[in-house]
Amino acid sequence: MLQHFKFKPMFENSQLPGWNISFFYKSERITGEYHPDGSIVWLSKQPADEENVKKMIHELMLFHVYD
Protein backbone atom coordinates (compact mmCIF):
# COMPACT_ATOMS: atom_id res chain seq x y z
CA MET A 1 0.00 0.00 0.00
CA LEU A 2 1.20 3.48 -0.87
CA GLN A 3 1.17 6.02 1.91
CA HIS A 4 1.22 9.82 1.77
CA PHE A 5 0.86 9.90 -2.02
CA LYS A 6 1.44 13.40 -3.42
CA PHE A 7 1.58 14.77 -6.94
CA LYS A 8 2.12 18.19 -8.44
CA PRO A 9 2.51 19.45 -12.02
CA MET A 10 6.08 19.46 -13.35
CA PHE A 11 5.55 22.85 -14.99
CA GLU A 12 3.99 26.11 -13.84
CA ASN A 13 1.80 26.03 -16.95
CA SER A 14 -0.56 23.29 -15.80
CA GLN A 15 -1.61 22.72 -19.43
CA LEU A 16 1.73 20.99 -20.01
CA PRO A 17 1.50 17.33 -19.01
CA GLY A 18 3.64 15.60 -16.43
CA TRP A 19 3.65 15.32 -12.67
CA ASN A 20 6.20 14.88 -9.91
CA ILE A 21 5.06 12.15 -7.55
CA SER A 22 6.20 11.08 -4.10
CA PHE A 23 5.01 8.50 -1.61
CA PHE A 24 6.12 6.00 1.00
CA TYR A 25 6.16 2.30 0.18
CA LYS A 26 7.33 -0.26 2.72
CA SER A 27 8.78 2.54 4.88
CA GLU A 28 10.87 3.96 2.01
CA ARG A 29 10.31 7.36 0.40
CA ILE A 30 9.98 7.01 -3.36
CA THR A 31 9.96 9.86 -5.87
CA GLY A 32 9.47 9.93 -9.61
CA GLU A 33 8.02 11.59 -12.66
CA TYR A 34 4.66 10.44 -14.02
CA HIS A 35 4.23 11.12 -17.73
CA PRO A 36 0.92 11.40 -19.63
CA ASP A 37 1.54 8.10 -21.45
CA GLY A 38 1.63 6.36 -18.06
CA SER A 39 5.38 5.88 -17.99
CA ILE A 40 7.21 6.54 -14.75
CA VAL A 41 10.81 7.69 -14.37
CA TRP A 42 12.08 6.90 -10.88
CA LEU A 43 14.10 9.71 -9.29
CA SER A 44 14.84 7.65 -6.21
CA LYS A 45 15.46 3.97 -5.70
CA GLN A 46 13.11 1.86 -7.81
CA PRO A 47 10.54 0.02 -5.64
CA ALA A 48 11.15 -3.71 -5.18
CA ASP A 49 7.67 -4.66 -6.41
CA GLU A 50 7.67 -2.17 -9.30
CA GLU A 51 4.79 -3.59 -11.36
CA ASN A 52 2.43 -3.66 -8.36
CA VAL A 53 3.44 -0.13 -7.38
CA LYS A 54 2.88 1.14 -10.94
CA LYS A 55 -0.66 -0.29 -10.91
CA MET A 56 -1.44 1.52 -7.65
CA ILE A 57 0.01 4.80 -9.01
CA HIS A 58 -2.00 4.53 -12.25
CA GLU A 59 -5.21 4.02 -10.26
CA LEU A 60 -4.49 7.02 -8.04
CA MET A 61 -3.61 9.25 -10.99
CA LEU A 62 -6.75 8.23 -12.86
CA PHE A 63 -8.84 9.07 -9.81
CA HIS A 64 -7.17 12.40 -8.94
CA VAL A 65 -6.03 13.82 -12.28
CA TYR A 66 -8.21 12.38 -15.01
CA ASP A 67 -11.61 12.25 -13.27
From TrEMBL:
Alphabetized Pfam families for the sequence: DUF5342
Superkingdom of the organism of origin: Bacteria
Protein name: YheE family protein
